[in-house]
UniProtKB/TrEMBL annotation:
Role, per record: Conjugation of reduced glutathione to a wide number of exogenous and endogenous hydrophobic electrophiles.
UniProt-annotated location(s): Endoplasmic reticulum membrane; Mitochondrion outer membrane
SUPFAM superfamilies assigned: MAPEG domain-like
Oligomeric form and interacting partners: Homotrimer; The trimer binds only one molecule of glutathione.
Enzyme Commission number: 2.5.1.18
Top-level class of the enzyme under EC nomenclature: transferase
Membrane-related topology note: Multi-pass membrane protein
Keywords: Acetylation, Endoplasmic reticulum, Membrane, Mitochondrion, Mitochondrion outer membrane, Transferase, Transmembrane, Transmembrane helix
Name of protein: Microsomal glutathione S-transferase 1
Residues passing through the membrane, by range: 15-35, 78-94, 100-124, 131-153
Amino acid sequence: MAPASSMLTTDNPVFAAYLFYCSVLVVKVLSMAALTARQRFGKQVFANPEDSSLTPKGKVKYDDPDVERVRRAHLNDLENIPFFILSAFAYTMTNPTPWLAVNLFRAFTIARIVHTFVYAVFVVPQPARAIAFFVGIGVTMYMSLVSIAYFSFAA
């Protein structure tokens, strides 16, 4: 087992890729707030009376289907991306093959971006969203199981 200090450096291509893809995912999650705001202003529907006064035709509405679709996509990110970040960190510490690790990180990131596009930006019928969702779940599950196996023998 390689020492952890040598793995947690940008000289380690797996850790460098981990940092890059996690940063992309953080920007992606934060951008969902802007996407929600764009939808709210475009439809002129807001969750609070003080916000509805920002536009002349603004109204308070809690169940607009388009706004709720974006909010559900954001919630789905919040339910999946933090677990990926934790699982990917543990996986990084297993000293994986760089090619496989980088492609797992890449696949998850692309899957989450595609999930948002087909769910909240350009709505595409199923199974597009399900495929993107399950690619992400599969990557996270694989990395978690590899980490469990690796660290169960180290314990």
